[in-house]
Amino acid sequence: MNIRTVLSRRALLGAVASAGLLLSAGSALAGALKVAGIWTLPVEQQWISRIHKALLAAEARGDIDYVWSENVANTDYERVMREYAESGVNLIVGEVFGLERAARKVAKDYPETAFLMGSSFGPVAPNFSVFDNWIHEPSYLTGMIAGAMTESNLIGMVGGYAIPEVNRLMNAFMDGAREVNPDVKFLVNFIDSWYDPPKAKESAFAMMDAGADVMYAERFGVSDAAVERGVKAIGNVIDTSGDYPDTILASALWHMEPTIDKAIANVASGRWEAADYGQYSFMAYGGGSIVVDENLVPADVLAKVRAREREILDGLFRVNVNDAPPVSDK
Questions:
Q1: CATH class of 136-254+286-313
Q2: pTM score, two decimals?
Q3: Maximum C-alpha span of the chain
Q4: According to DSSP H, which parts of 181-316 are helical?
């Protein structure tokens, strides 16, 4: 078992002092909420880091006392969930891809604890809510940039797993590229890992050998390959342009703060109910955005992207949601 639990002193004392304090429907809670995060990877991992950052911000404001466990194996996840629920935390946040049934069983056993979980499926009454990184909109915009910037008309895409959460971002990116460049083609590969930079790098090299001159870096390792070969890359979820100067054209960013803040407010006010919080990752709620290196992207390309961004925010353009696995062009 490889679990490293990190407790802030404030969170630990709060959890002990409030043992047995559970969410009571219809009644507001006094003081800072007790919130636990359960993560299957290190909190530095790009997807998890965005949720962790939002929770730390809420703790810094004094809204919550936050405790978390990282590197929790799937086989241990149910036990850790139960331990936090038994300790009296008010809200448990995590991701349950690959262990949906076990997680939902735990939630059912603790109906007065609020659960907010990254999930491929829907909420379950009374207390199991779900979220996801719905950043297909900024992904579309970064695709527009990639489509305009490629000279070979071949873009390489390296993903982790072909699951809906990844597929929809990659498909949106491809749609955006095709809008500005109908001749663009794609090479797509999944490395079947959330964190294997050497494998992602190897896959990227193979695509560059085939002629790809822009890389979609859904996984760590792709941008490293781009730097070594002198090609451009598109970032995902976080902004890594500082680590790869003159390489990252743009990135689709995920901001978890709107989701976390809404969940905290609902628990604190006693209004928690099972719901899908996915909408709070949309650009209109501030849950997604695009960052562009304007030194690398021509002004005319950026103008088209900003115009489309404005239409998305105004509700005049809807990015298609396609959860099907993307495939390479023949």
A1: alpha beta
A2: 0.87
A3: 63
A4: 197-209, 222-229, 257-268, 299-313
